[in-house]
Amino acid sequence: MYLWTPDSIRFRVDAAEYGGFDAKIAARVLRGLPESARVCDAGCGLGYLSLALSTGCESVTAVDTSAEALAVLRQNIVRHRAFNITAVQDDLFAMRPETPYDAMVFCFFGRVGETLRAAKAQCSGQVVLIKKNWKNHRFAIEEKPLKGYTFQHTVSELDKLNLPYETATFPIEMGQPFRSLDDALLFFKTYAEESDGEVLLEQIRSRLVRTDSEHYPYYLPSYKTLGIVTLNTGDIPDSIE
Questions:
Q1: Is the model's pLDDT at 194 over the cut of 50?
Q2: Using N-to-C axis directions, what is the helix angle for 21-30 and 6-19, rounded to 10°?
Q3: pTM as predicted
């Protein structure tokens, strides 16, 4: 389970409200859904994807185990008057809604097997898996391979299960804005691993670009490609290992 801290929440809020990449992801997802769809955003975190999805469907059930993350979403529901979103603090994989969802979206969340089992139990329509289509951690000081759950890994697992699915990839800018150089240094210290050693400002200064923004004068670019896997719950067998 991802642990949200005041710093990690602030960095994610800044990225969402400066870059707007959640809206771009939602636009790709909504292409395949009717406006009447009742959608579950599984493992929604702070809920910025939920907010973007809510503009193009009937309702969104945003589920996460973190009270801190959902508090941000609930504030944004009121702020944006997005009252077709229901924020639910629960274990997504143990939930059983009274009425199955029309679609479930798993964005950077869950292993293949557990997402398929959850979708089979909770959804009557489309399942959308959004995965990282790159090899290394975006913001590590040194190159560090991602450990599973990538687009390629997901496709490989589905092939082993002989499940029909469709895929698409698209480029997207998912960088991080900073309020100051000290803010940038704190960001890297927050996400550094032990093997990075001491994080120094000189290591990251060359990776930053200056902006015209009054609030975010520094920006760390991260132009990446996302992978989307779409399948139907009717094709998922009742038993998934």
A1: no
A2: 70
A3: 0.93
